[in-house]
Structures are given as C-alpha cells and as structure tokens.
Amino acid sequence: MRKLIRIIAFTMLLCIAACGEERAVCHLSGTAPEGGDTLYLYGLDRRYEKVDTIVADKDGRFEHTIATDTLFPTNLLLPTGKNILLYVEPDASASVERDSLGNYRVESNVRMQQIYDSMAARLNGLSPYKHLAEIESFVEKNPLSEASIMLWRNYLVETYKPSKRDIHTILNKFGGKLMDNDYVIDYKEHSEENRIKTNVLYTSMPAFNFTSLDGTKITNATYKEKFLVLSFWASWDSLSLEHLKNITAIDTLYKKEEVTFLNISLDCDTAAWSAAVRKDSIPGDNICDGKMWNNPLVKRYDISRIPYTVIVNPQLLNIHYNIPPSKIEHTMDSLVKDNKEKIKKKEEEKKRKKRK
Question: What is 96-134 written as a DSSP string?
Fold first, then answer.
C-alpha cells in the first residue's frame, strides 16, 4: 500500500511540474515614433497567424512577448506605415530602436535576423536591377536558410519584379524544406493558376526529339492517337517516387493503344535515374538528358516543382495540368470512357450513312 501511495505521489509531482512549466517566449522591445502609438505585429506565414496589438507608453517605449516553440518571421507595422522584419524564436530577444534621423535599427540575438539584416543592408545600397544577381548568389550559398525566402520575397517578388523566369530560377534553388514554406507554396499555386489561364493549356504538345532509356527515338508524333500521361520527376525526390508508383499501378488498367506514359527526369546523375527506373519498373518511355530544369519540355511547360503531370489527348492537345497523383486514375477513366463513346458514335454514324 505504501509503495502504491509513493507511486501516486510521484506521479502527482510530475503533473504539477509539467503544468507549471512555461512555454518558451521571445521578448520584443523598442521605441515607437510617438508616445501612445499603436503598433501591430503579424506573422508572415501560417506558423503565426495572429495579429498582436502593441501599445507604447507615453515615452514611446513598448514591451511585448510571444510564446513560441519555433523560428518564424513577422512584420512589425509602425503607425507611419513602415514594416520592420523581425525573426522570432524561443528564448530570444529583439530590440527596435529609432535614431535621431528617424531610422530604425534592429538589435537581436536571433542568428537569422542578423543574416537577413546584413544582406538587406547590402541590397539597400544597390540599385534594384542588381538585386537579382545578389539574391541568386546568396540563395546558391544558403539554399536552406529561412533568410533566402524573405530576401527573395521582399526584394524581388513583392517589389522590383524581374521576369517570372528569373524569379522561378531562384525559387528552384531553394533547398527541400524551404519548398514547404507556406509563402512559397502559395506563390507556386498562384503562378500555376495564372499559367493555366495564359500559357499552353489547350494548345498543341511542344515538338521534341528524345532518345529513351531503351534507345528508342521518340517525338511528339509518337503519341498521336493515344492519351499521354506526361510526368516530370527526379529520383532524388521522394514525392516523385511515390507518384511513379501510382503511374505503375495505372499502367495495368489500360491498353497500350489507349494510354501511354512519358516520364521526363530532372536528374543530373543519369546512373541514379536509370537505376530508379529499373528498380521500380517504371512504365512507358523514360527520358533523362541531364539538363535538369533546362530540359526543353521542362522549360516549355514552365515547370517549377515536381512531381508534375500533364495529360495530352490523342490529338496532341494539352488538356490537363498538374493532376494530383490521387486523381490521375479517375481523370483517365473519364477521358478514356468519353473517347470510346465518341469513337462508337462516329462508327455508328458511318454505318448509318452507308445504309443511305
């Protein structure tokens, strides 16, 4: 009985300790333009979706804490309309101070803040036309840095805008985890919507001339009179490999004269590519020219992420873009069924005319 009481008492102590444990916070402080000013702090992605109201005292000083267990970027909006980027992370602090000229300086022990501010100071001393090369160089050296996203966002996407091709070129240099950033995902989805409205949808499949893994010469004419599932992928991308498993399963459902497959790899290492194709017995024609994002079809379709699927009809017209793997089978079922009905009606119409 005593042993049981000791166990219960120990468990209660653990619960009390856990309940009393405080969540890590980030401390913010600084000086507002005027005493009594109201400032607003809001997150720049879905890691922090709140808007915090901060009221300065009569001397213009303010203090604020944010409970957090991760790193994320925020904007501090001043009454003047100026936004100040602040990185927040657990057990950190940042101070926003105004000098005699009215300029604001951020002092922070958040390493990402220091990296961003250093690069921002460099960019602010250059003309906007030089920002592209500087940011591209920074991203190449720091493909996994959160600062890469905010520099790309603040100095290219949302201010001076070079060509979309240049913006996508830098976007494609981001490391894996940055591609999962909310802003990056939203940007790509918005770009996709615009591309569907203005690009090659419902136009002919681009002409090409490739040699497949088995040595077969193929062109766009190879796929005439068939539905084509055109997939862009890479052996180093786990989502691509899952996508091609779905393709393999779908291949068993249709006759070769109905549906065929063309898989364009963005691999640089052709040995890794061919090993992946043979290992998983990926159906259809498999292409890898080692040009990665510069493959002619990748460029023609303006691909910015993988896996990516285009469905081409028997008349070589692009009819569907970026079909999710889970919807390819349903989409193909509908297309093949409709096509069979059209063929049947044509044959019946021919017979009817002959009778006349």
Answer: EEE-TTS-EEEEES-HHHHHHHHHHHHHHTS-GGGHHHH
